[in-house]
Design the sequence.
């Protein structure tokens, strides 16, 4: 995601005080340039969504006259729009099921920022992030060798690689897992069932 992503957010909430307060919080969130579209009544909801096509709709589920999220998306042509429920108190889980997330009026700016970041991450970015965390079959082999106490030279001989290639693989493993010690790799290998406890060289 860009360092300063442009985000159009519609806020559908009958209370002007809550709309203004939420707008003030949203505009102070780092990493985004947020444009707020205020919607005060259910009567204005469809018309405003059709004309502005926001990225995200933050809506009070009890907005008078308001109806289902799916129908709202279809009738306004905002099928890709993410919808966040704006809550004042604990709500029924069944009521919240159609929403992508929820914001409570007591949430901190950091909590709101994390929710926006998650919703604004594209499927391509999510896939890229997942790939960065996933080890290849060769990298898993090297993790097992390290956990068994083998040196880079021994690993290279075992896997028919150059020592330089082994070092490069280990660097990539450390970057992906954010683990920079043999003990950390041991924990990873055990948790992911790459080795048994009796395989480990103590």
Sequence:
């Amino acid at each position: 995601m860009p360092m300063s992503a442009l985000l159009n957010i519609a806020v559908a909430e009958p209370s002007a005080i809550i709309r203004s307060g939420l707008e003030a919080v949203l505009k102070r969130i780092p990493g985004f340039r947020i444009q707020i579209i205020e919607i005060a009544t259910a009567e204005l909801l469809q018309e405003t969504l059709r004309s502005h096509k926001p990225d995200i709709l933050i809506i009070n589920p009890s907005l008078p006259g308001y109806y289902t999220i799916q129908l709202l998306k279809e009738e306004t042509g905002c099928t890709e729009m993410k919808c966040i429920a704006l809550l004042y108190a604990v709500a029924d889980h069944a009521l919240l099921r159609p929403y992508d997330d929820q914001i409570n009026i007591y949430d901190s700016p950091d909590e709101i920022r994390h929710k926006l970041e998650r919703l604004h991450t594209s499927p391509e970015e999510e896939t890229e992030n997942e790939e960065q965390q996933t080890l290849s079959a060769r990298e898993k082999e090297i993790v097992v060798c390290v956990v068994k106490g083998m040196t880079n030279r021994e690993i290279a001989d075992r896997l028919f690689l150059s020592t330089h290639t082994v070092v490069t693989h280990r660097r990539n493993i450390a970057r992906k897992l954010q683990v920079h010690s043999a003990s950390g790799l041991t924990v990873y290998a055990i948790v992911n069932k790459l080795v048994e406890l009796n395989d480990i060289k103590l």
